[in-house]
């Protein structure tokens, strides 16, 4: 197995934060939209009108942009979710982070060119879970913050899926990313 350079990934809630992340060396930035569908609901989020500007700014600087659509979908939300997915595809985002298995399948059908990353909210804690999720077209898994270094090694030994890990904790009192449930 070859070890590649780590990607420095930063969250951003607005253009000021996005610019700061880029200026401080981020390889990629993730953010949510203020239309919902993301677990960053209590953080700052980008408006749909700012989406094109943000993606253009990132891409001109060789930085990738990932959008969080990492909440569970309800049937009544599907038409709006589909519209947002199409919008993300047109904007040229580099990947979408998802929690909902049905949302992953829907994104794959609507916009197959969009890369899918499993959000930490998907709670994939073993290589076996990751291999099952691979069938959804996932290209990367964000591991739960609670995994120890040894547990991450065990996961890595059982899968060749691209893995992402947090290098800082969160102030959540719930299991990784499950605080909104």
What spatial form do the alpha-carbon principal axes imply? globular
Q: How much of the sequence is in beta strands?
A: 15-25%
Q: Alpha-carbon distance between the termini? A: 37 Å
Query: Could you tell me the mean pLDDT?
Result: 89
Q: Give the fraction of residues assigned to helices.
A: 25-40%
Contiguous helical run count: 6
H-E order: EHEHEHEHEHEHE
Number of strands: 7
Strand order of the largest sheet: 1-2-3-4-5-6-7
What composes the largest sheet?
7 strands, parallel
- SS class: alpha/beta
User: Spans of 5+ residues with little confidence (pLDDT < 50)?
Assistant: none
Radius of gyration from the alpha-carbon trace, in angstroms: 16 Å
Task: Walk me through this protein's architecture.
The chain is an alpha/beta fold and 181 residues long. It has six helices and seven strands; from the N terminus they run E-H-E-H-E-H-E-H-E-H-E-H-E. The chain has helices at residues 15-23, 48-60, 78-91, 101-110, 127-133, 149-158, and strands at 9-11, 28-31, 64-69, 95-98, 115-118, 138-142, 162-164. The protein has a seven-stranded parallel β-sheet with strand order 1-2-3-4-5-6-7. Strand 3 (64-69), helix 3 (78-91) and strand 4 form a beta-alpha-beta unit. Helix 1 runs parallel beside helix 2. The longest helix has 14 residues, at 78-91. It is globular and about 40 Å long.
Fill in the keyword field for this structure.
16% strand, 7 strands, 181 residues, alpha/beta
Furnish the topology, listing elements before pairings:
Layout: E1 9-11, H1 15-23, E2 28-31, H2 48-60, E3 64-69, H3 78-91, E4 95-98, H4 101-110, E5 115-118, H5 127-133, E6 138-142, H6 149-158, E7 162-164
Parallel strand pairs: 1-2, 2-3, 3-4, 4-5, 5-6, 6-7
């Amino acid at each position: 197995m070859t070890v590649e350079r780590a990607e420095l990934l930063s969250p951003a809630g607005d253009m000021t934060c996005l610019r700061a992340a880029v200026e401080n060396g981020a390889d990629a930035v993730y953010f949510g939209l203020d239309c919902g569908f993301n677990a960053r609901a209590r953080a700052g989020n980008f408006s749909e009108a700012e989406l094109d500007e943000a993606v253009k700014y990132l891409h001109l600087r060789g930085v990738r942009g990932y959008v969080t659509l990492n909440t569970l979908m309800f049937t009544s939300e599907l038409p709006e979710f589909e519209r947002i997915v199409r919008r993300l595809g047109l904007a040229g985002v580099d990947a979408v982070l998802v929690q909902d298995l049905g949302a992953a399948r829907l994104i794959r059908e609507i916009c197959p060119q969009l890369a899918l990353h499993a959000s930490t909210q998907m709670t994939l804690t073993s290589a076996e879970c990751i291999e099952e999720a691979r069938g959804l077209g996932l290209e990367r898994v964000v591991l739960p913050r609670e995994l120890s270094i040894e547990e991450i090694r065990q996961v890595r030994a059982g899968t060749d899926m691209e893995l992402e890990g947090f290098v800082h904790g969160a102030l959540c009192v719930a299991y990784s990313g499950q605080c909104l449930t």
